[in-house]
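ingest -> validate -> predict -> emit
validate: passed (alphabet ok, no gaps, 63 aa)
predict: started
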Amino acid sequence: MVKILTLTLLLAIAGCQSTKGSFCAISSPIRISASAIDALTDAEVKALLAHNRKGQKLCGWRP
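emit:
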């Protein structure tokens, strides 16, 4: 599960550098279960929160 989340996170971050569209057009909030959160490293949690906070600020995502 952690490997899949890490890959998804890396793809989302790479998508920010794409010329195919804006962040809001090509990204969506990352939502995971409470049990999956326990398996994340601190760095993964930090990256996930940064992604979702950017979406809140730029795209109006709601928690």
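The first helix runs from residue 2 to 15.
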